[in-house]
Amino acid sequence: MPTTTTRRLAAVTAAAGLALAAGCTAGGDRSGQGPASGEKQTIEVWHGWSAPHEVKAFQDAVAGFNKAHPNITVKLVNGQTDDRITNAIRGGSPPDVVSSFTTDSVGQWCQSGAWQNLSPFIAKSGLDLNQFPRAVRSYTEYKGIRCAMPLLADAYGLYYNKKLMKGERPPKTMGELTALAKKLTVRASDGTIKVAGFMPSVQYYEHQVQHLAPQFGVTWLTAGGRANFSGDPAFQAYLKWNKSLIDWYGYDNVKKFLRSMGQEFESSNPFQKGRTAMAVDGEWRTKFIQEEAPGLDYGTAPVPVSDDRASAYGGGFITGTVIGIPRGARHAPAAWEFVRYLTTDTGALVTFANALGNVPSTIPALSSPKLTLPPQFRTFLDVFKNPNSSSTPPTPNGNDYVVRFEKFTQEEWEPGKVGDLGRALKKLDGEVDDSLKLAGG
Amino acid sequence: MASGSLRLPLPGTRGGTAAARARRRRRLRTLAFLSPWLAGFGLFFVYPLAATVYFSFTRYNLFTLEYVGLDNYTYLLHDRDAWTAMRNTLWLVAVLVPLRVLFGLGVAQLLTRIKRGAGVLRSILYLPYLVPPVSATVAFVFLLNPGTGPFQTVAARLGIPLPDFFNDAAWAKPGLTLLGLWAVGDVMIIMLAALLNVPASLYEAAAIDGAGACARFRHITLPTVSPVLAFSAVTGVIETLQYFTQPMVAGKVASGRADLPGVQYSPGYPDGSTLTFPQWLYDQGFRQFNMGYACVLALVMFATAMAFTVFLLRRFRAFAGEEAQ
To answer: Yes or no: is domain A2-154+318-385 CATH 3.40.190.10?
Structure first.
């Protein structure tokens, strides 16, 4: 017969077990975990920015938070990546706030509880989520679990060098882009490329498949969440356009040109050096040009669309930086105060957007008169608001389907190793689906 | 019962005779002295290996775990990237390891002949090995870059066409091999120690018998340094099977893509030619969080290393035995 002590011990053990179980589920309310936000404490914040002006911008944004919350000291750690964040959470010693440049891992983080469900925090502070555009709300949650908040956004557009354009208007369709690219290309006597009108290869920095294929109206996944490369003719349209322009340049010339380029985030970037007349890039390039090539006379426009989708002109690929509180954060209330300030305070967002050259992610900040970005930036604000803009859908294994399509394009399609394109895309579908299945998708 | 095994007293007995007690005490003493190593071996080898085997039957993304039977193993059979990575790794094992051993031996042999300034030369040749692999790889890629690298620029001016290392799929692995030969100091130094240990009297006797330089090298030098050759080959194979840093850095730097979250980079640039098995393992485990499958890849790597080690040790034993006859 159990004694009173034994019963008490059993009750305490059961209670502890229940508390532990509750704490270990993805949706557990941990909004009160750690000292109250009014107490004196230090929080650690990990972010991915690494360029000097980017790091300084983040520090400037935090300065406003420090004034508002003098009791909270913020320790910033820059240059962090998704895998480091995940490993820190798994290792049990995560920082209090984490951020990522992409939405690729949001699905996994929300589903597994690696990033805390922010709904209890949002409910407690009465935050209105309608201040974020709908597209932004959708890429910061997964299957109804909101584990991330948007911190600025990225939109992609077409940059064109006005001097090299020789008075031509920026193209609106892929047909116009192709014709203009050929017209503006300058070759050496041996046929090699001196100035590329437009370099279609996926190996050209931001000309990755997810930035150009959407302009052909591709649907990445089927309704059942499976690969759609062979099912959607838009993929073939994109690939054939890519190959026709590459063949016009000559694949060997393209390779030679690509190999002669410098690093993407250095002043040797070929667009900044006048080696490409037109290029697709993110809105941050405006800031880099301001810093590294202030004399460059350039304009921006939305990325052209396929000739049969002229009405969709104006949209583009959009994504954004996300920020959240990892499982195991020791100062959750203070961390939430920081996240809330940085993602919703118009002053902070505008300061940050001005300094980084990113798109602000709230509706009030988007229309703030204090935005002092260069005139070329207007394009990206318009692309961001355009209903035809899209992002890549989340899956249990992040953007693996995009990576595989990119690899196929780069290693098999562009060099001309593919005989039957339909069959090759079917095979790619199979590989993507197998990989999804491996990850539990 | 095999000698050396632990023999515990039967239940109910008091430990047997005095001699048996002394034997048991001796064994316990031996075990006590061995225990730090045994603890380390269990904690850092047996347990991780057992855990790897266990996780290989699960779908584990670092947060949730689910038993999936042999699914991860069957996936390996048609994972094209894994086989590409295996082919690249075996290419490096077959080419880089023998070249490093032979080159190290050759350089060491030359150093034994040099009378003046041998110490300085030895240090100069050993220095590249001390350069951190990331720095060395970045420097190599920049020096050989066709657009901005001084090597290519100078060669072009001289009219000598240099291959496009690190940007051409056909030349990327030879480029990595060059990098490995440049940092051959580790092999060179142990070869040098082995060569300096060969008794001079053997060479003198062979010379009196009329043996030429080749015969002396074949019948005296090689058999004497064969244990060191075996050691270099085995450690070289194990290191090359784990070759990660140099191809990862070379691929990233040569591709021009920044290593930032949001910038899509899949290891193996150009065209999968530098994708090694550990890189694919890392990609699966720490980028895609397919930890279960990454464990399968780790077991394959372990089995391959074991097979190579056993094979090489047997070959060298046969070689040494043949020489002894």
So the answer is: yes
Task: Centre a 10 Å sphere on the Cβ of residue A178 and count the other Cβ atoms it contains.
Answer: 20
- The per-residue pLDDT for A398 is 80
Query: What pLDDT is attached to residue B4?
Result: 45
pTM equals 0.81
Q: What are phi and psi of B67, to 5 degrees?
A: -75, 130
CB-CB neighbours of B265 under 10 Å: 18
Intervals of CATH 3.40.190.10 along chain A: 2-154+318-385, 158-312
Residue A411's alpha-carbon distances to A255, A258, B29, B161, B271, in angstroms, are: 12, 14, 62, 25, 5
Is residue A28 pLDDT above 70, yes or no?
no
Answer for the pair B141, B251: CB distance below 8 angstroms, yes or no. Answer: no
Higher pLDDT, A106 or B40: B40
Reported as half-sphere exposure (CB side, CA atoms, 13 A), residue B301 has a value of 26
B110-125 confidence digits (pLDDT tens): 999 888 888 899 999 9
Nearest CA in chain B to A113: B63
Among partner residues A261, A263, A438, which is closest to B290 by beta-carbon distance? A438
* A158-312: CATH superfamily: Periplasmic binding protein-like II (3.40.190.10)
> In 3D, which of A354, A241, A248, A365 has the Cα closest to residue A303?
A241
How is chain B split among helix, strand and coil, in percent rounded to 5? 70, 0, 30
Size of interface A-B (CB pairs under 8 A): 104
**Structural domain spans, chain B:** 25-68, 81-320
Dist. CA B66–CA B64, nearest whole Å? 7
Segment B152-175, tens digit of pLDDT: 888 888 888 888 888 889 999 999
Instruction: Decide which of 1.10.10.10, 3.30.1460.10, 1.10.3720.10, 3.40.50.11890 is the CATH code for B81-320.
Output: 1.10.3720.10
Q: Which residues of B touch A255 (CB under 8 A)?
A: 167
Extract the tokens encoding B62: 């670092």
Q: Find chain A residues with C-beta within 8 A of B164's C-beta.
A: 259
Reported confidence tier of residue A66, pLDDT bands at 50, 70, 90: very high
- In 3D space, the residue among A412, A429, A401 whose CA is nearest the CA of residue A239 turns out to be A412
Looking at residue A372, its pLDDT comes to 86
A128 burial level (CB within 10 Å; 0-12, 13-18, 19+): exposed
| Confidence at A323, pLDDT banded by 50, 70, 90 | very high
What torsion, rounded to 10 degrees, do the Cα atoms A343, A347, A351, A357 define? Answer: 60
For residue B66, give the chain A residue with the closest CA: A440
Question: Contacts of residue B272 in chain A, CB cutoff 8 Å?
Answer: 407, 411
* pLDDT tens for each residue of B190-205: 999 999 999 989 999 9
Buried-state track A208-222, b at ≥16 Cβ within 10 A, e below 16:
bbbbbbbbbbbebbe
- The tokens for B86 are 């295996």
